[in-house]
User: Which sequence fits this backbone?
């Protein structure tokens, strides 16, 4: 039996046991139940919760950003989808300022990684940037939910999506690429600059991205280099089973990606679940809630279209095509040296074990035509991969630097305002057609 089908069957077989376990936990959490207050009852309830959590399928989380604090004032935030394609939706986090207090702030497009987790992994990134900017984010769609009639999605399509978005903003936008999209963002801007497209972004901030994985290769990079593309095609590409909407689509399953994430730091994850068990018995609700919040997000994964996954592995991790000047997009060579208008900022983490130090900074060597005044590199000490775009160091040290960089590199010329309005306020008919 194919692995994906076996995974689905295992999940279905455990469903009754999972439901019974959840019912038992609820019964032993009732303060009116005498067993609830005994060591045995607490142990059974904790065991049931751990079983239910480790065997469930975690759905796509919500951003849940209802307000943001700006200058000490709570500003309401609402989400709206302003652009849609089969594999991506563009979300706008609209801030509603009190009448007469509306602030004019720059637009920021956060390009979320298409690498297994949902865009909600950048919830903290969005919340932080909302304090200073008008924020949009690419919300990639789980390939498991895209019918095969919509066609495949590869790295070239990814670049096309980004190009269409940049043109939609008419150049009046700053782009932030978190990890994986650093390559397609740099490629899209390079191609637009080479074509003298006036809609290139004001600036691009590339964060913890694998632009040149030959620099300080990590375990992830080494694993990719040790196998051929045919090995990946034979061993990790599977077909989506029924009853998902994307049945028969060839994908790299999210559960395989998650397995890779977990095994990289298996001891840490095992200790975290042991701690959860202890917290539940001791009644430490705050610590248990923090565990649930983190793992509800971390364990929610999506499938990637096989064409995108294989092309990315081959282009970025095996052939190192971009830094070698060999990357092409639909037959056209991607040449970052053509970039002359879009300012460049790169951000790395000192302890990043996914994109090693130097892999993102390599963009500066590739963008050789940019003047020194239009570029900056920042390395944050003491943070790993996720600390580059989330957490206290991001909020206090990294985000303010990014905002200052954007403010210093906002062009006043060649902004196609009509295109900006088209992205921001599309008609319902147009949105439906794009869907």
Assistant:
């Amino acid at each position: 039996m194919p692995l994906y089908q076996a995974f689905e069957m295992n999940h279905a077989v455990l469903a009754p046991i999972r439901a019974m376990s959840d019912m038992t936990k609820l019964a032993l959490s009732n303060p009116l139940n005498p067993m609830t207050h005994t060591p045995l009852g607490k142990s059974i309830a904790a065991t049931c919760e751990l079983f239910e959590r480790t065997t469930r399928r975690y759905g796509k989380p919500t951003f849940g950003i209802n307000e943001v604090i700006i200058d000490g004032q709570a500003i309401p935030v609402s989400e709206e989808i302003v652009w849609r394609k089969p594999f991506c939706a563009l979300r706008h986090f609209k801030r509603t300022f009190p009448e007469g207090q509306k602030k004019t702030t720059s637009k920021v497009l956060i390009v979320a990684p298409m690498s297994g987790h949902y865009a909600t992994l950048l919830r903290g990134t969005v919340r932080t940037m909302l304090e200073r900017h008008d924020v949009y984010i690419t919300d990639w769609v789980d390939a498991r939910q895209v019918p095969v009639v919509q066609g495949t999605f590869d790295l070239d399509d990814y670049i096309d999506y980004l190009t269409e978005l940049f043109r939609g903003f008419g150049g009046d936008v700053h782009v932030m690429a978190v990890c994986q999209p650093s390559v397609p963002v740099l490629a899209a801007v390079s191609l637009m600059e080479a074509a003298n497209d006036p809609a290139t972004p004001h600036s691009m901030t590339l964060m913890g991205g694998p632009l040149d994985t030959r620099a300080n290769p990590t375990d992830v990079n080494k694993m990719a280099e040790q196998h051929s593309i045919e090995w990946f095609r034979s061993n990790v590409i599977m077909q989506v089973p029924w009853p998902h909407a994307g049945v028969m689509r060839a994908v790299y399953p999210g559960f395989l990606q998650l397995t890779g994430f977990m095994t990289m730091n298996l001891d840490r994850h095992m200790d975290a679940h042991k701690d959860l068990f202890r917290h539940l018995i001791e009644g430490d609700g705050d610590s248990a809630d923090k565990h649930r919040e983190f793992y509800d997000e971390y364990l929610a994964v999506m499938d990637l279209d096989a064409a995108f996954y294989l092309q990315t592995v081959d282009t970025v991790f095996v052939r190192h095509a971009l830094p070698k000047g060999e990357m092409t997009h639909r037959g056209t060579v991607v040449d970052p040296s053509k970039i002359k208008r879009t300012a460049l900022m790169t951000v790395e983490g000192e302890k990043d074990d996914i994109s090693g130090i130097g892999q993102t900074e390599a963009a500066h060597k590739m963008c050789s035509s940019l003047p020194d005044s239009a570029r900056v590199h920042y390395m944050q000490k003491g943070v790993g991969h996720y600390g580059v775009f989330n957490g206290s160091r991001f909020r206090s040290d990294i985000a303010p630097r990014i905002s200052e960089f954007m403010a210093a590199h906002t062009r006043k010329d060649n902004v196609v305002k009509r295109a900006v309005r088209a992205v921001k306020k599309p008609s319902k008919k147009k949105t439906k057609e794009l869907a």
Summary: The chain has a mean pLDDT of 88. The first helix runs from residue 3 to 27. The two ends are 34 Å apart (CA to CA). The chain has 16 helices and 14 strands.
